[in-house]
Each structure stands twice: as C-alpha cells, then as structure tokens.
Design goal:
Elements: E1 2-6, E2 18-19, E3 49-53, E4 61-63, E5 88-90, E6 96-99, E7 109-110, E8 130-131, E9 138-143, E10 151-154, E11 159-163
Parallel strand pairs: 2-3
Antiparallel strand pairs: 1-11, 3-6, 4-5, 6-10, 7-8, 8-9, 9-10
This protein binds zinc ion.
Length: 164
C-alpha cells in the first residue's frame, strides 16, 4: 500500500492505495446519477486503488498535426480546434497517477483560478483544478464530466509515492 504526498510540503494527499498493474479500460456511462439527478461519470479505478496513465493527460491541449484526426482530447471527449480545421489532443504529462475522486474528497482543495462549466461535472480541460491544502501547489486534475471518465489525475512531478 502507498500514499501520495505533496512533493513540495510533504502533506498526505490520499488514503492508503494499492497500485494496479495497469490503467483499467474506461467504460461508458453506467447509469449512476449525481445527487442533483445529473449523469455521474463512470469510474475508471475502484476505491482504494490507483494506476498510472501512460498516455498524455490534461492541459495543455494542442492541435493534432493531422487535420483529419478525430481522436479524444480527454477520454470520451473530442474537442474541435477553435482556431484550425482539426481536433485538439492532450500534450499534458505522461505518467499521471489516476485515483478515484471520492477517495481524495476532502484531502484536496479546488483551484479557484480554474473556472470551468460542464453539463454534469468538471471537464478538467483548463489545467490542474485541485490544490494541496498545505501549500497551495497544483497537484491534480479532476475530470467528472459525464461524457468522460470520473478520475483524479495526480501530476507525476507534484506528488511522491510513499509506502504506507
Ligand atoms: Zn503541499
């Protein structure tokens, strides 16, 4: 078991978690709803586990070199390039650590500098939207929009993995 701690101040940012051998396949909407009746994004990792995402994740988003490419900038979400003919893709870091957002609820604080609206949850496209409550460092990006997965991605350079 491991816990994730803030690389800057050492504060504990997760409960004890068990590392999965790989990121599980992302599933479609599972019928769950939020407290307000909106659609709840499907979870990728189960409670008490985490996994490394080997693909680029999160901001910044850049135009894909192939204007015909129709891939997903955020899993489940194709984002058209507002300034060009094609789609945007993530040029964010590889190796983010994916945790179930409910597992870190109350252990992180929202980044007030990132304001985003989704239809049912936070899209997580405008940069790290979760801060360390100890020092204010940007540590993670939450995605909770219903078209994509329910995931908290810890930035690999912002956290340390410590054995619990
Ligand atoms: Zn910190």
């Amino acid at each position: 078991m491991s816990v994730l701690t803030c690389a800057a101040c050492g504060r504990r940012l997760s409960p004890p978690l068990c590392l999965l051998p790989e990121l599980p396949a992302r599933l479609g909407h599972d019928g769950r709803t939020n407290a307000d009746g909106s659609r709840h994004a499907p979870s990728t990792v189960a409670r008490g586990t985490y996994a490394m995402d080997l693909e680029p994740s999160g901001a910044p988003f850049v135009p894909h070199p192939d204007p015909e490419w129709r891939g997903e900038a955020v899993p489940g979400t194709i984002v058209l390039d507002p300034d060009g003919p094609g789609c945007l893709m993530s040029a964010g870091p590889r190796g983010t650590l994916v945790v179930l957002p409910a597992d870190v609820k109350g252990l992180l604080v929202p980044n007030s500098a990132v304001q985003e609206l989704g239809c049912c949850g936070v899209p997580g496209r405008k940069g790290p939207n979760e801060l360390c409550p100890g020092c204010g460092a940007e540590v993670a990006t939450l995605t909770a929009e219903c078209t994509g997965p329910y995931e908290t991605h810890f930035l690999p350079d912002a956290v340390r993995v410590v054995s619990a």
